[in-house]
Structures are given as C-alpha cells and as structure tokens.
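Example: SpoIIE family protein phosphatase.
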Amino acid sequence: MLRAALTGRSVAGQVFALQVVIVLLLVVSAVVAQVLQVRHDSDTEASNRSLAVAQSFANAPGTAAALRSPDPTAVLQPRAEAARKATGVDFIVVMNTDGIRYTHPQTGRIGEKFVGTIAPAVAGRTVTEHVNGTIGPLEQVVVPVKDSGGQVVGLVAAGITTAHVGGAADQQLPLLLAAAAAALALATAGTALVSRRLLRQTHGLGPYEMTRMYEHHDAVLHAVREGVLIVGGDGRLLLANDEAHRLLDLPSDAERRHVRELGLDDETAGLLASGRVATDEVHLVKDRLLAVNQRPTDLRGGPPGSVTTLRDSTELRALSGRAEVARERLNMLYEAGVGIGTSLDVTRTAEELAELAVPRFADFATVDLFDAVLDGEEPRPGTALRRTACAGIRKETPLYPLGERIRFVTTSPQARALTTGQSVVVPRLREEPGWRAQDPERTGQVLAFGIHSLITVPLRAGSLVLGVANFWRGEKPQPFDADELALAEELVARAAVSIDNARRYTREHSMAVTLQRSLLPRTLPEQGALDLAYRYLPAQSGVGGDWFDVLPLSGARVALVVGDVVGHGLHAAATMGRLRTAVHNFSSLDLPPDELLSLLDELVGRLDQDDGTSVTGASVVTGATCLYAIYDPVSRLCTMARAGHPPPALVRPDGDVEFLDVPAGPPLGLGGLPFETAEVELPEDSRLVLYTDGLVEDRERDIDEGLGLLRDALLRTPGASPEDTCRTVLDRLPAQPSDDVALIVARTRVLGDDRVAQWEVPSDPAAVSEVRGSVTRRLADWGLDELAFTTELILSELVTNAIRYGRAPIGVRLLRERTLICEVSDRSTTSPHLRYAASTDEGGRGLFLVAQLAGRWGTRYTPNGKVIWAEQPLP
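Written out as structure tokens, the predicted fold is:
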C-alpha cells in the first residue's frame, strides 16, 4: 500500500506527495528566513562595533598629534594593536588622507595603500561598507581624524569579519535544522496516516481510473441482462439497475424508499429486507419466475446491507432449449465434416451418412444411389437406384432392404427430388398419396410400423444427381419441420461431395488397375534356367509404378528385371508400361546389362523432355529405378547392373544370405554417368531375390533396418522353394503396404555337361563335314535323330558363313534345353542380314534357309566377337 502511495498515481499517493511538499516548503522557508535574519544581525553588529572602535581611536588624545609626528607608525602601531586586542576587532588601521597605512595587524602591510573607500572620510564623513578583504568577508568603517581646527589630518579604519560576529548564530543553526527535521518527520507521518486511510478507501486508484471505473461500472450495471439491487442496512433501496426495474416493475422513484413500499409481494419484499443469504431461490413475481441470489455486503468490513441479483428463468429456459438444439445441430455438422468421407469408398461413405443421422436426427435413414455411381461412372437418369446404406433404431423394418434395386414412381417424393433436384419434406406420410402409390402393400406396412414423417434430399455434386438420402421418423411424435430440412440438406450436401470424390476415385482406380494389369506380366514365360515365384502387392493408396519381368534370351539364358517408378495412379502405371516395353525391345538385342540401362536412361531422359511441356508437369518421369540381371545356366554366371535400385539378395544352398555388391548407378533419366556391371558365379539351387524398395523401406523405418529384416526372413527359409520364400518374406508386411511391393525369387538351375556339346572348327571349308558328323552323333546320343537333317543344314550354312566372312577361332555349341540350340561363334563383329536373293544370284539364300528351318534365330555380340544362334523345337 505504501509503495502504491509513493508512486503518486493513486489519489492517496497524490495527496501524500502534495502534503509532504507543502511541509517541506514550510520548513525550508523557516530555515532560510532564520539564516537570513542571523546574517543580517551579524552584519549590523559588526558595523556598529567597528564604528565604535574606529571613532574611539580617532578621537583618542594624541591620535591627531601622532599623525603630525615624524614617525606616526612608531607612536600609533602599539596603540592600535593594543586597542584591537582589547576590543576584539580584526584590524585597526591608521592612514593619512592619501590612504597610506601607518598601522596594520600585519606589519608587512604598513606603508601600503588601504583597500576600501576613503573619499567620503577625507571629506569629513564616516564610511561603512562590506568588503572582501585580505582576511575574508568583513564589515569595515572609516572615520576621519580631525585636529582642533576641524581639519582632517588622517583616517582610522576598523573592521571585523562576519565569521567572528556570527559564531553564536552558527551554534544555533544545527538546533534549528534538527527542529526542522523533526517537524518534517512528524508532518510526513501524519500525512502518511491520512494517505493510508484514503488509499484504503480508494483502493489505490487514480482520479482518471476512478472516473473510468465509475463510468464502466455504471454502464455494465445498467446494460447487464440480470437484475441487481443494493439494499442498505435499514431496508431502503440504494440502487436498482434497469433490468431490476423491468423484472420487478419498480416505480421510477424507488431509490431511497423502503423495500416494503415498492409494491412487491410479501415474500419477495421480506427476502430483500431480511438481507439473509439466498441461492437460486425461485419467486413468482407477477407472471415471471425469478431466480434470486442474495449476499450481505458487510462480510469483509463493508457497509451494512445486501446485494441481490435476479434472473428471469422463464426466458432462460426457452433460450437454453433453443441453444441446446443449435449446439446439437452444430455438433452434428462438425461430426459430418470429420466423420463422412473418411475413406474413398462410395458404399462406406453412404453408410457413414446414415449412421450419423440415426438416432440424433432421424429414427431411420436410407441412402439410394444409381448403380453407375457404385461403379465409378456418371449416373444415368431414369435408371433404377440401389439401396446402398440403411441405419435405424431397430434392425427389422418394412423399408426396402439393403441391396434392393428400386425404381421410384413419378409421384413419389424421391422421384420428385431426383427430377427437380430439390428436397422434399413430408410431415405426414399417411396424407401423401404420391408416396403411398410407390408400393401400396409396403407403404401400408411402413405406416403400421409407426413411421409417419419423411425428408428426401437429392445427393447433388455440381450438376450431377447421384441418388437420394431419406430420413424417416417414427419414434419421435413431432414431424420434420423447415429447420430440420435445412439441417438435412447441409448433412447431405457434405456427404454428396465425399460420395462424388469416392466415385471419381473408384473410376480412376479401376482404370489404373485395368491399365496396370494389362501392363504387368500375367504369366511367366517358359524357360529352364530358373525356378521362379513372384508377388506384386499394390500400395494402400492405389496402383503404382513397380514392375518386374522375366525375359528368355538366346543360349538358354534368362534376364530378370525389376523396376520402380515413383508415384501412384494412372501416370505411374502408364510410365511403368512404357519402360517395360522398352526393356522388352532392348533385351531382344541381347545387350549386356550396363548397355541396356544406358539405353533405358537415354529413353527416360527423352520422355522427360517430351513431357516437360506439360503445364502442370505431372507427367514428368522422376525417380525411376531398375535392376537388370542375366543368368546363364551353362556357366552359372549372373551379370547384373542397377540404376538407383536396392541390391539383390542371394541365398546360398547352405542358407547363408548376402546382399550382392552391385555398383549403384544413378536413377534413370539423370544421364551423364555410365553404369557398371557385376558378375557373380551362382551355385546350383541358389536363390536370387529381386525386389523394390517398398519391401524394405517405408515411413517408419529406413532402408538399412528394412534390409536387416529381409535378411532375417531369408535366413528362416533354408532350402525352401521360391513360393515358400515369397510367402515368408511377405508375411511380415502389412496387408496394405504404404508403397508398392514387387518381389521375384529365382532358384538357379544348371545345364549340365551331358546337355552341352561344343567344338572348335578350323578356318577351312573342309572342316564343315567333320562338324556335321560330330553333331549327328551327339544328336543320336540325345535321341534327337529327327532333328539331324535340319540341324546339319543350319550348321553347314552358319559355319560356312563364319569361315568365309568371319575370323578365327570359330566355335560350335549345341545346347539341349527346352529347345535345341545351335550356336556358331567367331571373332568378327559383322552381322549377317536376311534378304531375298535374285534369280541370277549365286548366293544369299543360306540365311533364308536357316530362318525357314529354325523356330528362332539371331545374333548376339560378345566382348570377343559375335554368336549366331538358331533354335529348333524338340520333337
């Protein structure tokens, strides 16, 4: 409180500061006046004493004679010093009329000129003045010394410093200051007591704050929608706000009158006069039920009396009921915003609308949609609807069951809503002939069941009408009204947007699924190098860009490819199809993995440039990865290269698991960097595991953790088949992963020496016959005598061309696999071309003959040359 007072911002603080300043000014004025008075008295006393001493010495006998003597100083100096000491003055100076000193307390100054005014004294007058002499501030008097004839023969000056005269006054000054301090302390203490009392009364508020508080309190008091009465201890009404005047119908001059004189009923007047505590007591005042609260005002030292508040509970209950209804409707709309459309499923969205409406809004709710909407297509007006969702307070109802196809008659409320696009409310179904004409038998059962009111709202999404939502009331006796119709329309409008979004998603998802299924391999091609199993899991959000393929190559080799296009939807699926087609085309050239990825990288770069003209840029290929591996069952070598793809895993026959160290190239489309290959020799019955990143990486774990989990899963499958391996690996994934997953497990087979035959052919045309003989004998050993003739023809042509156009060494190899494969190799890189020979040409018909006899034929290049191969189906 003292701190508040000292700040000076409150009324008490301002009063305290003003009182202290006044007392301080009075004390200072008194001290200053006393000091000035003491100084004035000291100056007067000094002047009088100096005048008396100077006149006495000037008129002393012998002074004038001494001034005429030859040596006045010798006569007058002793006298002057004796007189000075006897009178207590500070100096007595005798001088001639020119002001030359004959005497002085300090003998060194004798003979010097006197400091002061002497002209009036030379003229015969006395001079009194205040000067700052050599011994300090002093009062000095100069009187003339006259001879017997009245002529001025010299001057006498006497003086005394004010310090010597005011000694008594200085001794009184401390006492005076102490008295002033005591007076100031007493005055301050008294002022503080007064200010403290004032501070307690004003609560530390300043004048502006008190004025503003009064204005605000007065405004609140008269604006509040609650009656306020203040009654004094004597029962007189001291204050009543406007609401109290209205509720109690008080007269305009009610203030200062006793509460029993205000025309109130005895019970209410007695309560106000008693001042007792009351909490929510209900009193009937005329036609109003008032809730009365009353508290005394003297509980904490306040004035006697009581404060009473009044509330009109009649209006409050009506307002509370309306507020509760509004709150419930707002709550329903909020729950509709967060609870309808939680999934992109048309049926589930319709069910969410029906479940939200029952039982808070309707006793039964049904949703009928066109069949085309359920399939993701735009609705076709005039067709039948299907009951998609149904909810109610009871399970068994005579309404159309779930899944029923319904065709509404034109007079029914539902048909009118579908035709006009406007909602229809039927307060009393019994009086609605158009509704009863829909199905007289069923509508009769509905009425007998107790359903009596209906709201039908069309599900509109823009210009499309997707169906109708029906709200039925049976248990609640009151029919639907206009306010409830507005709520139903708002609920259905929100649901319609979600249903249309789900419909569009269903259409796009169906298109994407169809496209993806058409682009992914439906069955794996026949080949004998690998025992294969695969899995493809689409992401939870829909189809994506993960893909895989198995491509048989020449020489019984097989290519495995796994790729990933980042993203989901139609674009990802379409891009995946383009890349898969490109890999098919490039693999037909029998290219090494690194060269194939380089061509694929260049293709993706061109796709980016072509699609970069899109306004939105959504079709640009970004984040495409690929792993390409070629396995040769003869040499058991697997050659691999990857472009930003996770490394493959290898499960050896003893169960050991390792991730192959394949150089990681950049993702497809970046360009500028070459790809590197890795060559690994795989034991027979090894399992090669190729996968996409959705298997080992998601939002909850990084790829290192995913690779560790994959290793653990593969370690638990020693000796398992590829199918069992796929099943074990995928069991640890959720049913709907966050990203697509493509997985291939390939168990290696080996083409043994008993199924492979090879010869080295000299670069001599005569060696062709020897090769034919060796081949015929080997075919006989294999039981393939039926193919001997065609094989001889094919080898003769291929070997002859190699000898004629190629470079040594020349090799021949036969492979007995699903087909009989004949291969002729040499060191040249020239490629033979199939053409039609003219009738006059002597050659050019050999390759044509090979193409006719072989099922397939072609050329592949090796680091040391080329291989021309031809396949024949086994008999």
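The chain has five domains: 31-166, 224-313, 322-510, 521-611+619-748, 756-873.
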